[in-house]
Write a structure and sequence with these properties.
Strand content: 5-15%
Helix content: 40-55%
Strand order of the largest sheet: 1-2
Radius of gyration: 26 Å
Shape: elongated
Largest sheet: 2 strands, antiparallel
Number of strands: 8
Oligomer: single chain
Length: 358
């Protein structure tokens, strides 16, 4: 009995170690860059205290904010679906009793989800269901095969943070990219002067011997290359935030009863930003939880037909996206069950179809 247990433990450790390689790589690069910038540049080459002190002060402020955001992105647990979205064992057994009867499965899911705040469906207008987690999927949630759970407002699984980028840590992820880009630009800008001098034949630095030149030159080129990749990634995610989309939704738009709509959750640029960063602008630069809502339900664009019954109150005045305690769940019931257009034009019972598993 002990041998299988020890093998399982060994495999688990190996898997976690392999998953952590990208994170370890980033931390090693960061440790070397700290050594090269602080010791070889600021303490060895910059002889003027009036220059070295501001260099070090600004660098350490950016570094602290970067590490704070990075570790918050890594160690923030992705939020899963609330318990009321999970099928009870007896309902799940009834659901799986006859897997071939798809219409029966669809009816069971609709009965269970009639009081749940669900606005998105499968391509056949059925309830989105995850048979691995045994839950009805909340809007914008997807199953992550790496985290082995359904993640709320999943954007993507990022190997560089060894975690799912989702509702729980999306703000931290964007700040991690922003401060990483800022640090690379700052390092490149403060080292470029010395890199040029190393190649200038009119200066004494070109003929001076020392390993510090290799460190500073490599530091400049690595910071420049990382700044390009971070800029493209940050620009893309800023665009997604402005449109209130996730990476998954940019490739596969959410499906409402009336059809797929890539702007289904687009509330306008300012409100979209507040959904992620919150209403307190002064707290935006810091990796602390300020995002709106609970990651389960989201206000939708007024152009989506379902929004006509949802927007009876101004979501701007609510702290969360939709207040569950005061919200009339019968509105959801009418949307989920009473689709007159579908029933009049399609006599076939819609088949159960799970959404793609990521």
């Amino acid at each position: 009995m002990e041998a299988p247990s020890s093998k399982k433990l060994c495999c688990t450790v190996c898997v976690h170690t392999v998953k952590s390689i990208p994170v370890i790589f980033i931390l090693c690069i960061l440790a070397w860059s700290y050594y090269a910038y602080v010791y070889h540049l600021c303490l060895s080459r910059v002889t003027s205290v009036e220059m070295s002190v501001p260099y070090l002060l600004v660098y350490h402020i950016i570094l602290v904010l970067f590490l704070w955001s990075y570790f918050k992105t890594i160690f923030t647990e992705p939020s899963g679906a609330p318990p009321n979205f999970r099928l009870p064992e007896e309902v799940f057994e009834e659901f799986n009793r006859n897997p071939i009867d798809l219409s029966r499965q669809s009816a069971i899911l609709r009965d269970f989800a009639e009081n749940l705040p669900i606005m998105t469906f499968t391509n056949t207008n059925d309830i989105r269901f995850c048979d691995k987690c045994k839950i009805v999927k909340p809007d914008r949630s997807h199953h992550c095969s790496v985290c082995r759970k359904c993640v709320l407002k999943m954007d993507h699984h990022c190997p560089w943070v060894n975690n799912c980028v989702s509702y729980s840590n999306y703000k931290y992820f964007i700040l991690f990219l922003a401060y990483g880009l800022l640090m690379c630009i700052y390092v490149a800008a403060t080292t470029v002067e010395y890199v040029i001098k190393f190649w200038d034949i009119t200066t004494d630095m070109r003929i001076q011997d020392g390993s510090y030149k290799i460190h500073i030159i490599f530091l400049f080129f690595i910071a420049s290359m990382f700044s390009l990749s971070l800029f493209s990634l940050l620009a893309y995610h800023i665009y997604l935030v402005s449109k209130n989309r996730t990476t998954l939704e940019s490739f596969r738009p959410p499906k409402f009863l009336e059809g797929s709509d890539k702007n289904g959750f687009n509330l306008g640029c300012c409100r979209n930003i507040r959904e992620v960063f919150g209403k307190e602008v002064l707290l935006w630069p810091f990796p602390i939880d300020t995002c709106l809502g609970e990651g389960v339900s989201f206000p939708i664009n007024k152009t989506v037909p379902e929004a006509q019954s949802l927007l009876f109150s101004d979501v701007n005045d609510q702290k969360t996206s939709i207040d569950f305690e005061h919200y009339d769940t019968s509105l959801y019931t009418s949307i989920l069950i009473s689709d007159d257009n579908m029933s009049s034009t399609d006599t076939n019972t819609p088949k159960y179809q799970d959404l793609i598993e990521i």
